[in-house]
Design goal:
Blueprint lengths: L9 H11 L5 H26 L6 H14 L2 H30 L7 H16 L9 H25 L9 H16 L14 H28 L4 H29 L1
């Protein structure tokens, strides 16, 4: 087994910057995807513990919306519409922030929506002492906020990875896992002109991401049951730490430019 030294000092700074910097590597994409899948699982499960609704599962939200409309359950239908549009607006916000920063060639083009997400989760955690999720109005606001956050995060990792990774879309990941397993066990005949070959690296990536989503869900369920809405701060903190490094890099470049001027 090859020994890998622990990251300390400057090495850790470089690593944390690389996770969300504008200049990407495949390794950084993978590691960031694992972190965000964990956070998405935690927020999704925690949201269910708090308000009894999953907030990243838009397929379920749209299906439930159709059911509520047919059954005449107008309050629940309104909640479904609100959840859907909150997710869409979150994704749109992420696209606006990223494109604004990208046009200015900032290191923090992906970090800005990540920091905004962390700030929202911290604010959400701070409101725990005032929010009563047993009240319908508060529950709706909680659901809308968490759907917005999930849309924000999913759009960010989608743009960052060129639409190769979506950390909240477990259905798609599990489907791709099944496809790669099918390709792995497929036996090519002697006459096959284009052999079917499984992408083992993709299979491993997707399996680890689903595992991180599941582990995040376990942690989210436990923490939200124990701490209530304040548990969202636990998931926002690593995002805040990671997102700060590109912002500091931009600040240093801006200061250097001002000094030369």
């Amino acid at each position: 087994m090859r020994f890998r030294p622990k990251l300390r000092g400057p090495d850790m700074h470089v690593y944390l910057l690389s996770l969300i910097d504008r200049d990407r590597s495949e390794r950084a994409d993978r590691h960031l995807a694992f972190l965000l899948a964990f956070v998405a699982g935690g927020i999704n499960a925690g949201g269910f513990m708090a308000v009894h609704q999953y907030t990243s599962h838009m397929s379920g939200v749209v299906s439930a919306l159709a059911d509520h409309l047919v059954l005449g359950e107008w309050a629940l239908a309104f909640l479904g519409v609100s959840s859907f549009f909150a997710f869409v607006i979150g994704a749109a916000t992420s696209a606006i922030l990223i494109n604004w920063a990208r046009q200015r060639d900032l290191h923090s083009q992906y970090a800005i929506p990540l920091l905004w997400q962390a700030l929202l989760l911290a604010t959400f955690a701070g409101s725990a002492r005032f929010a009563d999720v047993s009240l319908l109005g508060h529950a709706v606001l909680v659901i809308m906020l968490l759907c917005y956050v999930m849309g924000l995060q999913n759009a960010m990792i989608t743009k960052l990875s060129g639409a190769r990774i979506r950390t909240t879309h477990v259905t798609g990941m599990v489907t791709d896992i099944g496809i790669e397993i099918g390709k792995y066990f497929y036996r090519n005949g002697a006459m096959a002109q284009k052999p079917v070959i499984a992408d083992r690296a993709k299979l491993a990536l997707l399996t680890i991401m689903v595992s991180h989503f599941f582990l995040g869900g376990l942690c989210g369920a436990v923490l939200f049951a124990w701490l209530g809405l304040a548990a969202s701060f636990v998931f926002g903190l690593p995002l805040m730490v990671v997102g700060t490094y590109p912002l500091l890099a931009d600040a240093r470049e801006w200061a250097a430019t001002r000094k030369r001027a």
